[in-house]
Amino acid sequence: MVAFPSPRILALLNARWPFKLRPSLWGVLVLVLIAGCLASALAVVTFTHMTRDQFAQLQKLELERNQLDTEWGQLLLEEGAWSSPARIEQVATERLNMRLPDVDDVEVIRP
Length: 111
Hints:
About 70% of the residues lie in helices and about 0% in strands. By secondary structure, it is mainly alpha-helical. The chain has a domain at about 60-85. It starts with 6 loop residues before the first helix and ends in a 17-residue tail after the last helix.
């Protein structure tokens, strides 16, 4: 058998208890607002951290792009040097023993 406290003891407890156990609308609203503020603060911290990481990655990628642009410009200059008509003629003459044909060796074919 369960013994319930007498009404006199309950009245004494209620008189000394500093707050009510029933949730009031204002109490719930305050708790919801506190939870919302904490969630908002955590979201700000998280997104700030993500933004800093992404900005650091962006700077690395921009540096790499600048280095690749510089290398591309150097390769274009090198290609221009290797493909100049004077260089091609020099290589054809020295390595392949090619020469310009004489005027008598040239035949013109008309359609």
